[in-house]
Amino acid sequence: MANVKLPKKLDPVKSAQKRSTYDGLYFADQMQRFSSTVASVSNEVPVKVEFSKDAQGLTYFKGSMQAQVELICQRCNKTFEHSVYTEFCFSPVQGSETSDLLPETYEPVEVDDHGEIDLFQLLEDELILSLPIVALHEQEDCAITAEDLQFGEIEPDPVRENPFAVLKELKRD
């Protein structure tokens, strides 16, 4: 199956009834929020999404995506390549009260007034959440070593008298 450009918005219930499967691409130049959080990103982000219904009749969609990015190391301030991979499993809900009834395997995603979801924004959010909290090289690959991160010496604390030593003297009497 050839990679195609994925839809930005769609109706997950109708897609689940059709048992739709998408194997396609999103382009990095359209992902403004994701692109702004990394130094650079490969142009194409391959995405696989399949819509279905489970044994309880709940609509869900699951899939995976991967992106090659360059991050800035927070230790040495140089870029390094990083592969971002994420898997997801969502179930569309209308209103927050129905999300409490979902099994733990499904992450609730709220549909709009037309019963559609913004698939593009949802998947962009997943990519952003898959980035490391602090971007760092591996210790052996980084230009900054552990010795470079240490400076100065810490003087030992001065020895102080015990304030209760006076009470000890009273106890002897």
Supply database-style keywords.
18% helix; 7-stranded mixed beta sheet; two-stranded antiparallel sheet; 173 residues; alpha+beta
Could you characterize the architecture of this molecule?
This protein has 173 residues and is α+β, with helices and mostly antiparallel strands. Helix content is 18%, strand content 34%. Strands 1, 3, 4, 5, 6, 7 and 8 form a seven-stranded mixed β-sheet that branches. It has a two-stranded antiparallel ribbon with strand order 2-9.
In short:
18% of the residues lie in helices and 34% in strands. It is of the alpha+beta class and 173 residues long.
The SS-based structural class is alpha+beta
So what's the overall shape?
Answer: elongated
> Using DSSP, what is the number of strands?
9
Our Rg estimate from Cα atoms comes to: 27 Å
Main pleated sheet: 7 strands, mixed
Q: What share of the residues does DSSP label as strand, in percent?
A: 25-35%
Mean pLDDT, as a whole number?
86
Helix count, DSSP H or I runs of 4 or more residues: 4
| Poorly predicted ranges | none
> What is the straight-line distance between the termini?
94 Å
Count of spatially separate domains: 1
Order of helices and strands: EEHEHEEEEEEHH
What share of the residues lie within helices? Answer: 10-25%
Q: SSE layout and pairings?
A:
Blueprint: E1 4-5, E2 9-10, H1 12-17, E3 21-27, H2 32-37, E4 40-41, E5 44-53, E6 59-72, E7 79-93, E8 107-110, E9 117-118, H3 119-130, H4 165-172
Parallel strand pairs: 1-3, 7-8
Antiparallel strand pairs: 2-9, 3-5, 4-6, 5-6, 6-7
